[in-house]
Write a structure and sequence with these properties.
Aminopeptidase; 335 residues; binds zinc ion; globular; 11-stranded mixed sheet
Length: 335
């Protein structure tokens, strides 16, 4: 590596280190979920309400990742409203509560999971395989519920500040669902992660011939005040689209502002970390666009990582690079 580049890397590392000494702001309250522990569907922290009229089974999920509290705030609010479906079935799930219970304001990034990422387990080979972990046990417990669902909304948030993103998967039906919900403004078409399959891509949700569908929404930075607002509005719009709850109640809580026209970004590459020596060589922000093709933005061991095309969007660059995991997804606007 040239001296000039090395100095650039060091300058960035120093900036990153001083930044990491500052604890991130936590501007949201963490709801007490103990009252939901019993569940009502023989699964802890899972609540299912049936209507007498036929209709789809819609599932709303929070805490796929234990420190992503915005969805839990939205679902706690919904359950307190005691809203029941007028048709079909409504399920409300707090997924990785074991990780959530470990949340530590002094080390807030540590409680994403207990043993492993709950959102990388969603193939029969893994779910039915010989391994065990806190997250696999929870996934196996919840799997029969997901197998009965028609439409799933999975509420997430991001480590770094970034505009909210609808992660639509790779099928056309995923984009159609994101468009039907109308928020957030940015929709990302992507294939997930080399490290494992997400719940939003599980079985029928990723089958183009199957009408069942899922949407993952990244509502903003984990602990910013706006993230639960986005989560709540996305949840209300998801319910409105499937018309399973009282529409006048919905209208009373929906934001009246007209959503901005949506834009679709297609992921062109998923950069998976190959060595223990991966680092970004420039400060990177979520959804930042690098105009020039061939710009070096990271190094991985001896390899320089360059933007493969112009107007290249960095979708959710990782905060903590780890071999085998996704460093960043690259994308560009389509349509
Ligand atoms: Zn997440």
């Amino acid at each position: 590596m040239s001296k000039g580049k090395r100095q650039g890397v060091d300058a960035f590392e120093n900036a990153a280190m001083s930044e990491s000494k500052t604890a991130p702001r936590i501007d949201v309250e963490f709801p007490d979920l103990d009252g939901y522990a019993s569940g009502n569907a023989r699964i802890a922290y899972a609540w299912t309400f049936h209507s007498e009229r036929p209709g789809p089974h819609v599932l709303l999920q929070a805490l796929t990742h234990g420190n992503e509290v915005c969805g839990a705030i939205a679902l706690d609010w919904l359950l307190r409203q005691a809203i029941r479906p007028e048709r079909g079935t409504l399920s409300v799930v707090f997924a990785n509560v074991a990780a959530y219970a470990r949340f530590d304001h002094g080390d807030p990034f540590a409680s994403r999971c207990v043993d492993e990422d709950f959102n990388r387990l969603w193939t029969p080979a893994v779910l039915e395989g010989p391994r065990d972990s806190v997250e696999l046990a929870r996934a196996r417990e919840l799997r029969p519920l997901y197998d009965s669902v028609d439409y799933l909304l999975d509420l997430h948030s991001m480590s770094e500040p970034c505009v909210p993103l609808a992660m639509a998967g790779r099928q056309r039906k995923g984009v159609e669902l994101a468009r039907a919900v109308e928020i957030p403004q940015h929709i990302v078409i992507d294939r997930g992660h080399a490290a494992g399959t997400r719940l939003r891509d599980y079985g029928p949700f990723d089958d183009p011939q199957d009408t069942r569908n899922a949407l993952l929404i990244e509502c903003g930075q984990h602990w910013e005040a706006q993230a639960p607002v986005v989560a709540k509005q996305a949840m209300l719009r998801f319910l409105r689209h499937f018309a399973i709850v009282d529409s006048s109640w919905l209208e009373g809580h929906l934001d009246r502002a007209r959503p901005l026209p949506q834009r679709v970004v297609e992921v062109t590459a998923t950069v998976t970390i190959q060595t223990d020596e991966f680092r970004f060589v420039r400060p990177v922000r979520g959804f930042e666009m690098i105009r020039e093709a061939g710009t070096v933005y990271a190094v991985d061991g001896d390899a320089e990582i360059r933007t493969p095309h112009g107007d290249c969007i960095l979708v959710m660059p990782t905060r903590k690079p780890k071999r085998g995991e996704t460093a960043v997804r690259l994308g560009r606007y389509v349509g």
